[in-house]
Amino acid sequence: MFTARQAFSQASRRAFSSSARQSSKVTVLGAAGGIGQPLSLLLKLNPRVTKLSLYDIRLAPGVAADIGHINTKSEVIGHEATPSGLAAALKDAEIVVIPAGVPRKPGMTRDDLFNTNASIVRDLAKAAAEHAPDANILIISNPVNSTVPITAEIFKAKGVYNPKRLFGVTTLDVVRASRFISQLKNTDPANENITVVGGHSGATIVPLLSQSGYSLEGEKLANYVYRVQFGGDEVVKAKDGAGSATLSMAMAGARFTESLLKAAQGQKNVIEPTFVDSPLYKDQGVEYFASNVELGPNGVEKIHPVGKITDHEQGLLDACLVDLKKNINKGVDFVKSNP
Ligand SMILES: NC(=O)c1ccc[n+]([C@@H]2O[C@H](COP(=O)([O-])OP(=O)(O)OC[C@H]3O[C@@H](n4cnc5c(N)ncnc54)[C@H](O)[C@@H]3O)[C@@H](O)[C@H]2O)c1
Ligand SMILES: O=C(O)C[C@H](O)C(=O)O
User: Fold this and answer.
1) What positions does UniProt annotate as the active site of this protein (predicted)?
2) Hey, whose CA ends up nearest to atom 37 of ligand 1?
3) Which domains can be identified in the chain, with CATH numbers?
4) Could you tell which of 244, 249, 251 is best to mutate to test the pocket of ligand 2, judged by most ligand atoms within 8 Å of the CB?
5) Is 56 annotated as a binding residue?
6) 65: which of 1, 28, 135, 303 lies 20 to 30 Å off by Cα?
7) What's the pTM value of the predicted model, to 2 decimals?
8) 14 has pLDDT over 50
9) CA of 148 to the centre of ligand 2 (A)
């Protein structure tokens, strides 16, 4: 005979397993690349993902066959590099993560990737707008400050734009900012969560150290800010022509995807920094901005303002907004001239 406690525990097990069974298809476009492969691996290890669809212009079926042997429950499908393969990859996706595109080589800025990556992202955005109009779209491909507006313009043109479901992934900046301060202060980086706002390149990356109660002075502060703003260059230089950050980015992309899934499955107070269609600086002509964003079942739940900052941080923010506006307009203009 069941005791009340046993009955309760069985009911709660059922409730848990039914929410765990909730179907969450995640699609990776660019899945065979330096980021795409480890990101897909991490997503295969995430029990919240029930179906993982991998698409690339090369090798996605091979990557899927490999990852598909891992003994976690999710189904993995590698799609052919054809329009119908892309359509099938996107159909019914809850989350579409896009790391497709070329990475930097030493001496290049992220903006130097624009000519190649703008059209790659535009074309994938067209397919996503057609086959997954309600999905959360996570843009990793650089330059993020421009590829997010490109995606938005495509979704607007197709009449399916939902600003709550488009995200530029800036998580790596926060991961770096947290790691770098822990190295200076001998703290556990897992306990650090430095707010980083603005965009994702050089001067548009603005770490707000003061909000975590830290104050660095003079050269120490300048070096810290530089390292966060140009952390990507450290990796590009060290890889010496073989690409940019892939493994740390895969971790950051998996973290952001996990946060969205948690929020979609009802967890409250899930906050991640991300580059979104934001009201914060629209009065200055800046349509997109990264700040802490509370995530929910509908994507963006609440965009947090930047909050109290020091005069030095205000100076960084002023410089950020100038560059950001140019990067955003470049993306918007690209779609106007190359629809
Ligand atoms: N947001 C960030 O913080 C961040 C961090 C690191 C890298 N990035 C950017 O991510 C992008 C990818 O970097 P990577 O190191 O993985 O590059 P990579 O060259 O190793 O991989 C890119 C993959 O995209 C695929 N691809 C190209 N065109 C495609 C298309 N039309 N459809 C589907 N797949 C396509 C390629 O075949 C390749 O497998 C770069 O633009 C890089 O700058 C962003
Ligand atoms: O630096 C790059 O080009 C890749 C990425 O944006 C990064 O921050 O590592």
Assistant:
1) 200
2) 57
3) 25-170 (3.40.50.720), 171-329 (3.90.110.10)
4) 244
5) yes
6) 135
7) 0.94
8) no
9) 15
